Amino acid sequence: MQRVEDQIRKMAAFTGVLLMATAEALAQENQAGTAARRVVVSIPDRKLAVVESGRVIKIFSTAVGAPESPSPSGVFQIVTSISDPTWYSKGKVVPPGPSNPLGPHWLGLNLKGYGIHGTSNPDSIGHNASHGCIRLRNRDIRELAKMVKVGDQVELHGERTPETDQIFGVVTASTQAGAMAGVGASQ
Can you give the pTM of this predicted structure? Predict the structure, then answer.
């Protein structure tokens, strides 16, 4: 009887080790599938980057807030993702379609009224032209919406940082002059 009990204990110990190894492997696999993904926006560069596990996946050109309605700086989260949004402003309602200022997709941030979206004015991309939101070309917002999800972090940088230098390139006198040319542009 003692021998049977010893075999059962050995089998239970082996099964426990096997279950722990399996759980650890699944945890590592799940962690790899949910790599840290961030959206990094350089307001002075008017650029947006999708960064995953420290690696730049894609960079998009944007329009950012006009001088009278600047884009906020800070760390936010995507809280909504809406295809074909309706735009509401001061008693005006614009349904989904080519004249909708939000374009084909809205990624709302946890700062009420602010988000990343498409545009009915593609000529505004590359300029300080929005009411504070981050605008992308319609094809770009469709692509971005497939790359990110609710809960992803969005960093809006109002000034250059060592990280934005690394992501978007170091500003030289000629690139800074080009950037300044777009500061006063509007819709």
Answer: 0.74
